[in-house]
Every structure is written in structure tokens, then in C-alpha cells.
Amino acid sequence: VQVVESGGGLVQPGGSLRLSCVASGFTFSDHVMKWYRRTPGAERELVARISVDGMRTNYADSVRGRFTISRDNAKNTVILQMNSLKFEDTAVYYCAAQMDSYDLRGQGTQVTVSS
């Protein structure tokens, strides 16, 4: 049972990155999926969330209008498309599957926005 993120990297301000998360070991289509991020010394922030059918999404105010979460239940994949990146988007990004009493999270992928 796991989720594995990929797609992080170094990008200039104003650029874009596409994060992917592949799930295995559980019925992906039964679970709400989330993307979190964490910066050193800061609280973990819920960036985006998507319903099991992909029809409903929620975003943190800090990313709304710039980030898009989507999912492909046939491929057990959730995507975070990040556009117009800012310095303050620098963080480790984690994918998570909402389980009954906890979030199943991956190891994370580093996103660094720097000129």
C-alpha cells in the first residue's frame, strides 16, 4: 500500500511543473486524494484535494488559480499541475490518499523555485 510522487525539480519564477502520484495496493477510486506541501520550519499545508470521481476540487488560497489537481482512476494517478510558480511555492510536496483515520502519504518530491 503506497503512493509515490514524482516530477519535482528546479524551476524559475513564473514557470510550471507537473507533479504525478501513482498509487498501488488499494482501491484508488475509493479514496479522496490530496497534495500537501511543507517548508522547513512551517506547518504542513493542504494544497489541493480532489473527490473520488474527480468532479470536486478544493485549493488553498495561496495556490488557487495557479494549481490544478486532477486524477485518472484508470491509471491510479493523481496530478498536480503547477503554473505561475513563485518563490514561496518552494517546498516538499506530498501526495496523500485519505484513508479512514489517516492520510497515506508518500516520501515527497522537492520543488524549488529559484532564479
Task: Summarize the structure in words.
This protein has strands at residues 2-6, 9-11, 17-24, 33-38, 45-50, 57-59, 67-72, 77-82, 91-98, 103-105, 109-113. The strands form two sheets. Strands 2, 4, 5, 6, 9, 10 and 11 form a seven-stranded mixed sheet that branches. Helix content is 0%, strand content 51%. With 115 residues, it is mainly β. The protein is built from no helices and eleven strands.
The largest sheet, given as strand count, sense and whether it forms a barrel, is: 7 strands, mixed
Q: End-to-end distance, in Å?
A: 38 Å
Number of DSSP strand runs: 11
Given the helix and strand composition, which structural class is it? mainly beta
Strand coverage percent: over 45%
Order of helices and strands: EEEEEEEEEEE
Radius of gyration, in angstroms, nearest whole number: 13 Å
Write the layout of secondary structure elements.
Blueprint (H helix, E strand, L loop, with lengths): L1 E5 L2 E3 L5 E8 L8 E6 L6 E6 L6 E3 L7 E6 L4 E6 L8 E8 L4 E3 L3 E5 L2
Parallel strand pairs: 2-11
Antiparallel strand pairs: 1-3, 3-8, 4-5, 4-9, 5-6, 7-8, 9-10, 9-11
For this entry, give a set of tags.
single chain; 115 residues; mainly beta; seven-stranded mixed β-sheet; four-stranded antiparallel β-sheet; 11 strands; 51% strand
